[in-house]
Amino acid sequence: MEQGNYSVGLDIGTTKIVAIIGRENEYGKIEILGTGRSKSLGVHRGVVNNITQTISSIQQAVEQAELNSGLKIGSVVVGIAGQHIRSLHHSDYITRPNSEEVIDNEDLDKLCNQVYKLVMLPGEEIIHVLPQEYKVDGQSEIKEPVGMYGGRLEANFHVVVGQVSSIKNIGRCIKSAGLDLGNITLEPLASADAVLSQEEKEAGVALIDIGGGTTDLAIFKDGIIRHTSVIPFGGNVITEDIKEGCSIIEKQAELLKIKFGSAWPGENKDNEIVSIPGLRGREPKEITLKNLSKIIHARVVEIIEQVYVEIKNYGHEEQKKKLIAGIVLTGGGSQLKHLKQLVEYITGMDTRIGYPNEHLAGDSDEEVASPLYATAVGLLMNSLESKKKNRKIKHQEEELKEEEVLVGEETEMGAKANTVTHTERKSIFDKWSEKLKDFLDNAE
User: Fold this and answer.
1) Are both 149 and 254 inside the same structural domain?
2) Does one domain contain both 192 and 245?
3) In this predicted model, what pLDDT tens digit does every residue of 369-404 receive, in sequence order?
4) Helix (H, G, I), strand (E, B) or coil at 20
5) 259 phi and psi angles, rounded to 5 deg
């Protein structure tokens, strides 16, 4: 099967690496063809810190997905997170040479390209430039300026910035694992695509993705991304605390957290006790569930409060910026018992757990619809989306070529100019990915 029909999302997380192969069915839903997951070694708080281990973990996940689906994986879309990600707001404008012509996509691209030229701190690179709303000749709050007349096109942008070295390390791992890097996407954006509905994005919603090493936040309002942030704490620090607090090994702490852990200490009776086998010939340890949930509670409160500070920074308390749809929790950490209630208690906002089944075909595997896979499903959607766009552009170019053949010499120049513009519509991101690929090729 050629790779045109299916795409691959690769989520390089702190605790697990997931590869998902899928395609779009005739109803526009996503059909999962194969999944693979492996324990992630060599990633700490969302950042690669051991290339060799990461490569072998990626290969494991990819091989499993290939076995599952019987397909070969070529190019993948990868997510990026980690404490080095920051976002900022920026406004920019272009003056159009001819205000008698309507604004088209090229003008928007030109405006976006300008933002990519912003000077960042040393060692930082712009990952995403996300337009918020546009202004045409001073008329504000325009969502879609294409087709309007105007001389000055302005926009507010949400710019996401990351460390060049971290991005290059991810690229390096992908290349060394024998894969092509199709695209890099911010993980909270991918998760948001997978679990949020359009209504929620319109009403205003905060997506909190609690992973192993990081907690990602993405805030939407009026259908537009307004704020993103990556907090360098996740489920692993909870496990660490249990390990230290109960003096047990990490594997046991993780199991305790999953099986008996709760974010709400009030509901455990004092006499509920779990016995844990001691290490080689030592006495077993007895741990009360009340203590366990106290340890978990303390750390979870800290994580949620940090996220809540970010939501306040966005301006949730202002009437116009109110997030009506509240909070959606996703990621592996969102499966902790009573977490939803605790988040509602701390923030006073409506909360639900987000499952990535919004866009999946009905017969998808139960497992993939778990919050654990939100990012991977989102990356897969991103990959399918960019393939669709490229096909569209190709199609337009082919149509133009046919016109060229039909119409004589006269229009040849015009059509050529047209073809050029269509090829130039490659997003900056593709150009940037190409730059990264060249860099990696030369580095060998």
Assistant:
1) no
2) no
3) 899 999 999 999 999 988 888 888 888 888 888 877
4) strand
5) -80, -45
